[in-house]
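Entry 14. Structure prediction run on the chain below.
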Amino acid sequence: MDDRIDIRVYYEDTDCGGVVYYGKYLAFLERARTLYMENRGIKITELMLEGVWFVVADVHIHYHKPAKYADIITIHTEIAELSFASILFKHRIEHNDTEALIATAEVKLATVGNDLRPKRMTEKMSAALKES
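Output returned:
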């Protein structure tokens, strides 16, 4: 299942040339992943109460074309791999109106406990993500 989120680029997201600052894409991808999980009934706040946290273990972004101030971008999110303690997300970022490719990314999240050691996902979470 492919989820999508539309994000408007604000002035605060850009550099002095009006182009989205490369680091801002990480925040956009975080929003997309959070929405992806919420759409499957996974609430980050509930996981935190259970002592389950996410940490970013690996990020790869390839920038194809710039996004600029006032653009609406669309982020498509899907799961590429799922293990007992990690999720590999694939993202595709496009211009909303032209569907021109802006960037592609892979982000690996690890699930950890309060001690920051790997922790098995809850059965509920694992089942919800496998249905994707």
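Residues 81 and 102 are 23 Å apart (CA to CA).
Filed with the rest of this week's runs.
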